[in-house]
Design a protein that fits this description.
By secondary structure, the protein is an alpha+beta fold. The chain is built from two helices and eight strands. The chain has one domain: Thiol Ester Dehydrase, Chain A, CATH 3.10.129.10. The protein is globular and about 50 Å long. Keywords: Hydrolase.
C-alpha cells in the first residue's frame, strides 16, 4: 500500500473536512516513513506564562496521526481516536511553532496506532511524545 495523498492533496482534504482548524496546522513533509506536521502557534494556543497549552499539543498529536491514517487510507474521514497517551517532557520555547514527527506503528483493518514526537521549531529537544490509537470503521 502506497500513499493515498501527496502533501498538497492531504492538506486540501483536511482543510475541507476540518475547516474550523485549517489555519492551525500544516503538513511540512509526508512519506511512507512518516509525516512532519506543524502547529502554527498563535496567541490562542498559549496559556499563562507564555507557553503552548497542553490541549493545543494534544490537538497536534491527534491531527498528526489522523493525517497519517488518511495518507494511507485515502478520503475516508470516519476514523476516530480511541486511545491517547501524552507525555509532556519540557516547556516549549516561546514564540516558536511546534513541529510533530509522526510514524505509524500499526495499520490494520480496524485499528491504527501512531507515535508522535513534538519539538519547538529549531530545537532537537523533545517537548512531548504521544501514542494515539484510532478505530477504523469497517467498509460498507
Amino acid at each position: 500500500m502506497g500513499l493515498a495523498f501527496d502533501v498538497a492533496g492531504l492538506e486540501a482534504y483536511m482543510d475541507e473536512i476540518f475547516p474550523q482548524v485549517a489555519d492551525d496546522f500544516a503538513v511540512d513533509a509526508l512519506s511512507m516513513e512518516g509525516i512532519t506536521m506543524r502547529l502554527k502557534v498563535a496567541e490562542r494556543h498559549l496559556r499563562p506564562g507564555g507557553t503552548v497549552s497542553g490541549p493545543s499539543m494534544f490537538a497536534l498529536a491527534d491531527v498528526t496521526v489522523y493525517a497519517l491514517v488518511l495518507s494511507r487510507l485515502g478520503a475516508k474521514a470516519l476514523a476516530v481516536t480511541t486511545n491517547c497517551s501524552l507525555d509532556f517532557m519540557r516547556k516549549p520555547e516561546a514564540g516558536r511553532d511546534i513541529i510533530a514527527k509522526g510514524q505509524l506503528l500499526k495499520l490494520g483493518r480496524s485499528l491504527a496506532v501512531g507515535d508522535v514526537h513534538m519539538f519547538s521549531e529549531g530545537s532537537d529537544k523533545l517537548v512531548a511524545r504521544s501514542t494515539m490509537t484510532y478505530s477504523i470503521p469497517p467498509e460498507r
